[in-house]
């Protein structure tokens, strides 16, 4: 192949260069390729050993069941058990609720903030950008604990609402199945909006200013500019952030464990927490736990395909 | 994205990672498994520096056997110990595993049954009859004694004598009562003092656990694995009693440990029914000295129920790895046969063991000024011997997570029999 392409290329090259170029390619192609392989071989091996091999093993494990080390193959028994397991169904329902409410909410908010903060006339732009991005650098556990105390029955949120007369008596946010979910959604949104905003801000820098100028001359108002220019221009980034946020929300663990520990009852338990419980909290059944973790894999694949279909360009 | 993969690989990835990381630990800890005969360092894992770790330190000082070895004590959070044991033992490698480990009694059976060859039997090492009877069922498996019973989780009712007095009651009035009588007293206390009688955490059914053990019942059958919920009269009674407490409006609702401790330290509640390990926390409210007394746990109003129960407590286990003989020898010559060590534990740490011969020592007879001169340790160790023995089995926490939801439904007005049938069905579906 390379020989042939060199020959094709010879036609356009000046005679002086012709000889030089062929020689370098003859000795160099294999060397170049080898160097290329050397650069990636380390990560290829590492990914194979530490990602693909465990994935295959986990897949095999998902067809086994038993206590601790006494695992044996049970065929599709784990999958049958999955659909009759009320805790799993509760975990799946909760995770879907987080996903359906939180991801769109966060994406819209992030988009909104990024457009506001991209306005060159805005004062203290840097300050606002940092303020919204800052939650992202806090530790998951630390911020979860703070949210737990904020929304505690003696917490500042209750005090505030009570003192200003918004509520007649304190709400036990974390002990109420509805409010506990609201707190979780608020917490994740607070933590991750800034993170997504950064992607949009970066993408907005690449949008040509003259497009907006032309739109203004044509008489487009701010809304039309946003929906007709900004959103289409950011489409690939919106797709990217939707997929990463979806994956992140499907795996939500730290916040749930630290804020509500899945409670009250199973009102906030997530799939990941259930996997943890099956492995370490209850009598360990690593086989069934892998089955549940493969549900996340399947969901991620399905949702990503849907998102690509809906938002992606047809190619 | 990194998190994404971690989640994906949890089941297997964790095993690999844990095996690697604990390998490092071993290297740095120097508890070499090189040299098959005569290990010179034995490692012990436990949690809580103020209690279990401190007890191990005392045991290390008190060791008077012939073995020539160093004892290395490593502190880990309980959750971390559970994870490390599970990952290590299920991967089949003994590398990086400790020689001695502390396991909570509620979890003991699941470890003993999930990893049958991982633990070293102590049947011929210690005298099981020297220990409180209720500890033996949970620390043994198939006729072999694996655990060395450690701290007593004997439950007791801590009461504020001043509040009771204000409501017209004496300490005798709350001694050896039923939960129904307790609720009546609670109503009166709330009426006169405005204080709640106790705290309840809707996410933690410790209260129910203590109640059913007073009648020798548990969430599972004798076999330790079949859920026993729908036809469990004791459990039904405990649910009814729990609801009565809620309906009587005598409970302050808390949602975590710090609120729980805060409630009695700030004088918000008139009593604390819980495990005796709460004593140091009760004593933190130094200004309340002399206003507290400790009485036996209330019992369920059923034939056969006694005024003694248990909450928590753990035991020592020797792992079946190199150095097990040394570790067993260390255990025998400290917690297994040394009554003086238990005196030190009571005096210096406030840790109450379950070794019966220790009960005659002086430290057990000390009068505690904080509790109005009561011989607290003597009382607690007497009640320890009365705790009905039950097999905690394999699924205490799994079933309790299901019961919490059932309890919510019941408190919100669902029919009790329906609720219990539901949870039975759920437990059977989940615990296969």
Automatic annotation (TrEMBL), chain A:
Q: Which family is annotated?
A: Belongs to the binding-protein-dependent transport system permease family.
Its taxonomic placement starts with: Bacteria, Bacillati, Bacillota, Bacilli, Bacillales
Biological source species: Planococcus koreensis
Name the PANTHER family on file: ABC TRANSPORTER PERMEASE PROTEIN (PTHR30193), INNER MEMBRANE ABC TRANSPORTER PERMEASE PROTEIN YCJO (PTHR30193:SF37)
The protein's matches in CDD domains, at most eight in alphabetical order, are given as: TM_PBP2
For biological process, the GO terms are: transmembrane transport
The protein's superkingdom reads Bacteria
Protein's recorded name: Lactose/L-arabinose transport system permease protein
Q: Which InterPro entries match?
A: ABC_transporter_permease, MetI-like, MetI-like_sf
Automatic annotation (TrEMBL), chain B:
Signal peptide per UniProt: 1-18
> Which regions span the lipid bilayer?
none
Matching entries from InterPro entries are given as:
Bact_solute-bd_prot1, SBP
Q: Which UniProt keywords apply?
A: Signal
Cited PROSITE patterns: PROKAR_LIPOPROTEIN
Give the matching PANTHER family.
ARABINOSE-BINDING PROTEIN-RELATED, SUGAR BINDING SECRETED PROTEIN
What name does this protein carry? Lactose/L-arabinose transport system substrate-binding protein
Q: Which organism is it from?
A: Planococcus koreensis
